[in-house]
Amino acid sequence: MSAPLGRRALAEAVGTAALVAVVVGSGIQATELTRDVGVQLLANSLATVFGLGVLVALLGPVSGAHFNPVVTLAAWFTGRRSKDGLTARDVAAYVPAQIAGAIVGAIVADAMFGKPLVQWSTHDRSAGHLWLGEVVATAGLVLLIFGLARTDRAQLGPVAVASYIGAAYWFTSSTSFANPAVTIGRTFTDTFAGIAPGSLGPFIAAQLLGAALGLGLVIAVFGRPAPAQARTIPLQGEPELAAPTLP
User: Is the CB of residue 245 less than 8 Å from the CB of residue 78?
Assistant: First the structure.
């Protein structure tokens, strides 16, 4: 990858912060404008779709626009045998940057709306059907991202990923967090988009399980690529990130 690791990690932090600010901020705005929960969710999901699409298009050429530890871990796992894939050093920089960015994004959103800068969420999300929703949402996201890379259509990432997350807001019981960093960030705000710290562990476990299932689905649907088929194509906009090569 052409950009230095420091710049790529900064892009991941800035992108994740902006994404969480969009999610949390639009949730606050929606609840202040209407008491209709359906309208609140619609406003929140639309803002997230537009914000995520813009951020992936803008920052993808720098870092790959992961904004998500499960995407970063999956990219490292699938490309670990490729000289162009993410290294363990990249992962060690990306994941903390994403988590820190998510926390900052939640704090900034609260600050913009005059809320306490840090207030632990009281929104309990501890239920089996919500964990299943996270498994499904994360598996679908991983299948989409790596499926696009495998079919040479990664240039569709900004639109496709944003569209999937927007749809998953509505077809999953959990409203599709599908992102450990964003989940952590959302514990810092006691607003519409928050999640209680006590709900954090099972959500992240479900997301990791979903990521593993998603990679399994990539193999099942697209097969195992021959070594000669691996080549440099974008992943979520990254121009020099090798295509995932599944073991």
Answer: yes
Does residue 240 register a pLDDT over 90? no
Rounded distance between C-alpha atoms, residue 32 and residue 110, angstroms: 13
CA atoms within 13 A on the CB side of 34: 12
CA distance 103 to 203: 17
> The pTM is what?
0.89
How far is Cα 224 from Cα 240, in angstroms, rounded to an integer? 21
* pLDDT one-digit tens code per residue, 118-176: 999 999 999 999 999 999 999 999 999 999 999 999 899 999 999 999 999 999 999 99
For residues 52 and 178, give the distance between their C-alpha atoms in angstroms, rounded to a whole number: 13
φ, ψ for residue 122, nearest 5 deg: -110, 10
Cα–Cα distance for residue pair 144/157, rounded to 1 Å: 9
HSE-up (13 A, CA, CB side) for residue 124: 3
Q: Which residue in this structure is represented by tokens 């230095």?
A: 4
Distance, CA of 208 to CA of 202 (rounded, Å)? 10
Amino acid at the residue 185: G
pLDDT band at 234 (very low <50, low <70, confident <90, very high): very low
Separation CA 174–CA 112 (nearest Å): 26
User: What CA–CA distance (Å, rounded) separates 49 from 168?
Assistant: 11
Closest CA to 67 of 44, 100, 42, 26: 100
pLDDT tens digits along 35-50: 999 999 999 999 999 9
